[in-house]
Amino acid sequence: MRKLQERLKVLWTGETYTRDFQDSGAQHKDFQHALMHVVKASGKLAALVEDQDHEGREEFSQATARKYLSDVIICALRMGNTVPGGASSPSEYKNLN
Length: 97
Prior knowledge:
Blueprint: H1 2-11, H2 19-23, H3 29-55, H4 62-82, H5 90-93
């Protein structure tokens, strides 16, 4: 998990965010942004299952489910990297409970 979090720090830098977002002084902005992605992806997964259950669709879209599951996993890692007051380096991770 730590290796994935470290790799994500290199890949998801926030450089593509708007200037307003980048200039915001809110300590929780990156955490909140990742959390919103988790919430949206979870909602999409819930809708996928609900549609399958109530509309009687015969095929469950694994490709769609994997897309949203990937978003949940990646964003959860991002949240771990950006939690306000949390560990910012691998040496600090071992001190978290």
